């Protein structure tokens, strides 16, 4: 694969850790800055839309049959089944966005992250942890979206999800939201300043500087 100017970030976390809120806040902070372009990948899923979710904006909502057909066509960068529903990311869309110099954020689980990192080892993996198991359960309860039975299932799944934190290069504990957001921004900035990325971005300048000797 050719070198990509944009950076690919994976954010994974147990449900209720605040991952989606952190991504949204980061996008809003940089929305008006064209020099720091970033996008959140819109995944395909077979689950039903939640109240307020828009097809094509939050997810591409498809049937199970449609999703399985896309798998056969090799459309997905990664895909996984979570809580009985399929989730997947379009590989072509991601690569086209990265080639345009735009950073892409994938909101996926550890299974998807493992698939992506095999294909693109340069990916920056970030895992979001809650400050405690009690806080995580309270956050899920406060959503008011799920039954006690569903929450119990999510808590069990959360422990399994968190056991894979060491597969990611960065870990953020989301206790104070503002601090966690600053930590996330620091990781993004650090990733952008790596020599390999800076060399691609500033090759004409480097040629001029080194050629003047």
UniProtKB/TrEMBL annotation:
EC number per UniProt: 2.7.4.8
GO cellular component, one term: cytosol
Family that this chain belongs to: Belongs to the guanylate kinase family.
Major subcellular site: cytoplasm
Gene: gmk
Catalytic activity: GMP + ATP = GDP + ADP
PROSITE patterns: GUANYLATE_KINASE_1, GUANYLATE_KINASE_2
Keyword Nucleus set for record: no
Chain ranges of the Guanylate kinase-like domain: 6-189
GO MF, one example: ATP binding
InterPro entries per UniProt: GK/Ca_channel_bsu, Guanylate_kin-like_dom, Guanylate_kinase, Guanylate_kinase_CS, P-loop_NTPase
Keywords: ATP-binding, Cytoplasm, Kinase, Nucleotide-binding, Transferase
Pfam family, any one: Guanylate_kin
Highest taxon above the source species: Bacteria
The UniProt record lists the keyword Cytoplasm: yes
Binding-site residues, ATP: 13-20
Organism: Alteromonas naphthalenivorans
Function according to Swiss-Prot or TrEMBL: Essential for recycling GMP and indirectly, cGMP.
Source lineage: Bacteria, Pseudomonadati, Pseudomonadota, Gammaproteobacteria, Alteromonadales
Protein name, per record: Guanylate kinase
């Amino acid at each position: 694969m050719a070198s990509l100017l944009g950076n690919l970030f994976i954010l994974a976390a147990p449900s209720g850790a605040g991952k989606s809120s952190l991504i949204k806040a980061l996008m809003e902070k940089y929305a008006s800055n064209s020099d720091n372009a970033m996008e959140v990948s819109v995944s395909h899923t077979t689950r039903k839309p939640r109240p307020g979710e828009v097809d094509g904006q939050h997810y591409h909502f498809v049937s199970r049959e449609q999703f399985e057909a896309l798998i056969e066509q090799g459309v997905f960068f990664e895909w996984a089944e979570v809580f009985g529903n399929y989730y997947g990311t379009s590989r072509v869309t991601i690569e086209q966005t990265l080639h345009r110099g735009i950073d892409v954020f994938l909101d996926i689980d550890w299974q998807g992250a493992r698939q992506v990192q095999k294909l693109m080892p340069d990916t920056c993996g970030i895992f979001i942890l809650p400050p405690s198991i009690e806080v995580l359960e309270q956050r899920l309860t406060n959503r008011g979206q799920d039954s006690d039975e569903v929450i119990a299932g999510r808590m069990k799944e959360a422990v399994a999800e968190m056991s894979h934190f060491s597969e990611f290069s960065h870990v953020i504990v989301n206790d104070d939201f503002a601090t966690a957001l600053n930590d996330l921004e620091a990781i993004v900035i650090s990733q952008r300043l790596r020599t390999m990325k800076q060399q691609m971005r500033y090759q004409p300048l480097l040629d001029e500087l080194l050629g003047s000797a």
